[in-house]
Every structure is written in C-alpha cells, then in structure tokens.
Amino acid sequence: MAKEEVERIKAFFNSLDIHPTYMQHEAVITSMDAAKSRGIELKQGIKAILFTNNEDKWVVVDVPADKKVDQKIVAKQLGWSKSKIRMATPEEVINKTGCEIGAVPPFGHKEPILILVDKGVYDNLESAFNIGLRTHSLKIKTEFMKIVFEKAKAIEGSFGR
Fold first, then answer.
1. Measuring CA to CA, how many Å separate 65 from each of 4, 16, 36, 127, 136?
2. How far is CA 61 from the centre of its chain?
3. Could you report the per-residue pLDDT of 40-55, keeping only the tens digit for each?
4. Helix ranges, the chain (H)
5. Which residue, 16, 24, 107, 156, is most buried by CB atoms nearer than 10 A?
6. Which of 67, 72, 52, 59 is CA-nearest to residue 124?
7. 66-103 as b/e: b if 16+ CB within 10 A
8. Euclidean distance between CA atoms 14 and 156, whole angstroms
9. How confident is the model at residue 1 (pLDDT cuts 50, 70, 90)?
C-alpha cells in the first residue's frame, strides 16, 4: 500500500529533475522521533495532517513540525464550519492517502486532495518529511519544496500556531 506512495513521490521528483536525499530508518510516528531519527531540528520537518468537515471534503495541511495546525484558520480559508472541522481518523487517513498516521507525505497522495501549506515551512534551508512509510523519509533543500508545492497546486498561507 504505502510503498506505492514512496514510488509515486520518487517518480514525481525525478520528473522535476530534483534529487533529494532518501533515507530509511527505524519506524517513527511523532515529529520529534522523526527529527531525531533524521538528525535534524524539529522545525525542519514538514508535518502533513489530514482534515475533514464531515461532508466528504478533505484537506492536507502542511506545517513546520514544531507547530500545530490552527483548525479555525483552516476552516475559515476553506469556508468550512469551525464546529465541523476535525482531524481524520487513522482509518480515514489510510483510505484517503494510502498511508498510516506518521507517514503521510505533504503531497503525492493516492487520491487528489487539496493541500494547504504554512509559509513557515520555507523558513529553513533544508526540510525533511516521511514519504509514505514510517521508515522512509527524505531531506531536501527547501527552495525545491516551493517548486513542488506550486506543481501540486498547494495554497500557501498562515495555518500554524
């Protein structure tokens, strides 16, 4: 299942002639564990969280790993009810992205999903994130992530707190 996401992301980077550093490591779920495993600062990680409004609308919100998603701002951006927005359940995450919680990449999901990117992810020279499996991630120059998010038609804004 999630191995397909790993291969999809690698193919996407190859199509853009971008060559990140791919890593395999112990299985990680939390952003803190991921940062330790990768040998980076927590703020360099990109955390991808799936949200829904209970009306079959979905969004992946990407924030620096040392931040939390401000659900009220996300709801306002999307015109969703602030009382209905919620994080997806573990089962919903697998169904929509093809990945377990902790392995969801910031783009390249099995189904097209709207992506919101917090501009804070661009504050680092290098970024890192899981690419579909809890044991697989990559490091990349953050300047390339701007290109990736443009190709993925992500919407930039301030979504973290």
1. 24, 25, 12, 10, 17
2. 7
3. 888 999 999 999 998 8
4. 2-15, 31-38, 71-78, 90-97, 142-151
5. 107
6. 67
7. bbebbbebbbebbebeeeebeebeeebbbebbbbbbbb
8. 24
9. low
